[in-house]
Inverse folding.
């Protein structure tokens, strides 16, 4: 249901049947899907969920993929079930398998991932993402990331300044942190999802593949 055009009547300001001559097209906001995967993280998942639900952007589809938690995580998530577009709790083949499940289920034009111990530092974060994708040539965007202690959330331990992408930078260890990485879902459909052959580095491999490989084909 992303970016669909509806028809609204100039006179009555409501959706009208096709034969109404007073109709004018209106655009819905671009839908942005956010996927959180979690396993046994009862203490931090609620803060993550709230950082998504408090976003001011009007069309966010939030999907939570739980790996079959047994510590009460699911009970915490279910407090917000009415505000979550899709929730499943079942065993999986690791974090990247769970992320693939969420990505394939997502219906938004743009897709991002937020780990269960991460938060957006601003309620306007997704608005800024949407602004970037107003440029139809934009296929992906990424940003900086702050590291902090769970016990002292206002105390920043490290500031990851991603910087601008330069071709070949991956061989020197450069990579955008995946919680800051958003892309058009059609890119995953075209070039593939997380490769489960990389059980601890599939995020690096995916971003490398998406940013470097298409350029090598040109």
């Amino acid at each position: 249901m992303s970016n669909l055009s509806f028809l609204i009547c100039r006179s009555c300001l409501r959706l009208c049947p096709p034969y109404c001559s007073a109709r004018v097209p209106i655009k819905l906001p671009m839908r942005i899907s956010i996927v959180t995967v979690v396993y046994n993280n009862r203490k931090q998942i609620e803060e993550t969920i709230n950082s998504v639900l408090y976003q001011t952007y009007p069309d966010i589809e939030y999907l939570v993929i739980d790996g079959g938690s047994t510590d009460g995580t699911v009970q915490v998530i279910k407090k917000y079930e009415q505000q979550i577009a899709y929730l499943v709790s079942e065993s999986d083949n690791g974090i990247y398998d769970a992320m693939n499940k969420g990505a394939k289920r997502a219906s938004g034009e743009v897709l991002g991932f937020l780990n269960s111990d991460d938060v957006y530092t601003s309620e306007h974060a997704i608005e800024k993402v949407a602004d970037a994708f107003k440029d139809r040539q934009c296929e992906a965007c990424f940003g900086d990331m702050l590291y902090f202690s769970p016990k002292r959330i206002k105390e920043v331990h490290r500031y990851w300044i991603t910087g601008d992408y330069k071709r070949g930078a991956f061989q020197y260890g450069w990579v955008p942190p995946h919680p800051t990485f958003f892309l058009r879902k059609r890119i995953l459909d075209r070039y593939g999802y997380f490769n489960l052959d990389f059980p601890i580095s599939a995020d690096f491999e995916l971003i490398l593949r998406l940013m470097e490989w298409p350029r090598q084909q040109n």
Notes: The radius of gyration is 19 Å. The CA atoms of residues 59 and 143 lie 21 Å apart. Residues 1-28 form one domain. The chain is about 25% helix and 25% strand.
